[in-house]
Amino acid sequence: MSAAFEIQSPLPGAAFGATVRLARPLSQEIPDGLAAVLAKANGLLLIQGLTEIADRPQLLVDISLKFGPEVEDYRHTLSRASSVHTTAPEIFLVSNMAPVNRAPPRRPDPPVTADGRLPVQYPHRKGWHTDQSYRRPPPDISLFYAVTPVARNRGQTLFADGTAAYAALPAHLKAKVDGLQGLHCQPGTARSREGALAGRTDIEQASTARSQPQPVVRTHPVTGKPALYLCEWGQMDWVDGPFVGMEPGPRGEGAALLDELMAHYTRPEFVYVHEWTVGDLIVWDNRCLVHAATWYDGDTEQRMMWRTTVRGNPGAIYEGEARSWMPREQVPA
Ligand SMILES: [Fe+2]
Question: Per residue in 246-256, pLDDT tens?
Answer without folding.
Answer: 999 999 999 99
